[in-house]
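Retro notes (design track)

What went well: tokenization of the new backbones is finally stable.
What didn't: we kept losing track of which sequence belonged to which structure.
Fix going forward: every design gets posted as structure first, then sequence, in one message. First example under the new rule, 306 residues:
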């Protein structure tokens, strides 16, 4: 059984230089810093155009201490496959190849190459940091933008379509490890990255990244907003290991308590949901309640069988 990491056992070595170009309150900085600690020195990053390329900056003043290959929007997974081939040709082993892309470069523009890599069984880790929109180009909607959210190109009624469940799409490829987590729970993220590296083939980790300017909240509230997403049941912390779903951390505690916060608290925390009506919120709450009642029943069955 994997021992859970605590703040006292987290590695002290930093693989990110002090200072970066992220927005104030950006939780990608938290996920990136903790994620690199989990990945370690022997890692090559593959990064498409995204907020992460802004955060890292450009050579020779990049924030990261790791080699990072900047690639085109659609080719993160394909480029990671190429890096694997190059390492094999050079006879180099023990190096983690990691694609680290935003939701646009994962759920939309990059989904084709990622799906292909999963089907081939290429051995790399793909991390999607999901700030639920194309934030560094002006806050346009992406496939993972929630229904009803206001963006630059959904300014009147908000986004009309439900969000893509990218983790479920990747799990449907029958890869060995898929995990969902949040920058508001960095130790959960750390442990899932460490665990992912023990599996072969493509491994996928989806991180919710609260975004102050894109979502419309004060930078000081970033962690609070991220935790509200989980505590209301709208976002989940879980892992799917060889097809078996298991909730972790705060989401598992929700199942033990059998009590969620009202989703209206999450929506009230952000200006992007200003146009949601009372009826809209009630319908979303019904969907969340129905989904979690299924989890509660499954949890009870598992507990009674143990």
């Amino acid at each position: 059984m994997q021992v859970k990491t605590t703040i006292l056992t987290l590695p002290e070595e930093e693989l990110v230089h002090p200072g970066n170009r992220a927005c104030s309150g950006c939780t990608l900085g938290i996920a990136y810093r903790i994620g690199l600690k989990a990945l370690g020195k022997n890692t090559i990053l593959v990064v498409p155009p995204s907020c992460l390329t802004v955060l890292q900056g450009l050579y020779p003043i990049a924030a990261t201490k790791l080699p990072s290959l900047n690639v085109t929007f659609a080719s993160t997974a394909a480029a990671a496959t190429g890096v694997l081939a190059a390492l094999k040709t050079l006879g180099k082993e023990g190096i983690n190849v990691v694609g680290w892309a935003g939701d646009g470069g994962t759920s939309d523009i990059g989904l084709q190459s990622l799906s292909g890599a999963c089907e081939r069984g290429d051995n790399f880790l793909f991390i999607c940091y999901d700030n639920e929109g194309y934030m560094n180009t002006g806050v346009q909607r992406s496939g993972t933008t929630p229904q009803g959210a206001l963006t630059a190109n959904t300014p009147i009624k908000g986004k009309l379509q439900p969000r893509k469940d990218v983790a479920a799409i990747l799990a449907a490829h029958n890869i060995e490890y898929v995990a969902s987590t949040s920058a508001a729970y960095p130790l959960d993220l750390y442990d899932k990255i460490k665990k992912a590296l023990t599996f072969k083939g493509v491994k996928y980790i989806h991180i919710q990244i609260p975004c102050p300017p894109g979502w419309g909240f004060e930078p000081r509230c970033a962690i609070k907003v991220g935790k509200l997403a989980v505590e209301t049941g709208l976002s989940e912390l879980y892992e799917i290991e060889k097809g078996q779903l298991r909730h972790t951390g705060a989401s598992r505690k929700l199942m033990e308590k059998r009590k969620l916060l009202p989703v209206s608290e999450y929506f009230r925390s952000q200006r992007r949901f200003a146009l949601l009506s009372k009826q809209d919120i009630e319908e979303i709450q019904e969907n969340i309640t129905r989904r979690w009642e299924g989890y509660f029943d499954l949890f009870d069955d598992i507990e009674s069988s143990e």
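Added context from the reviewer: The chain has a mean pLDDT of 95.
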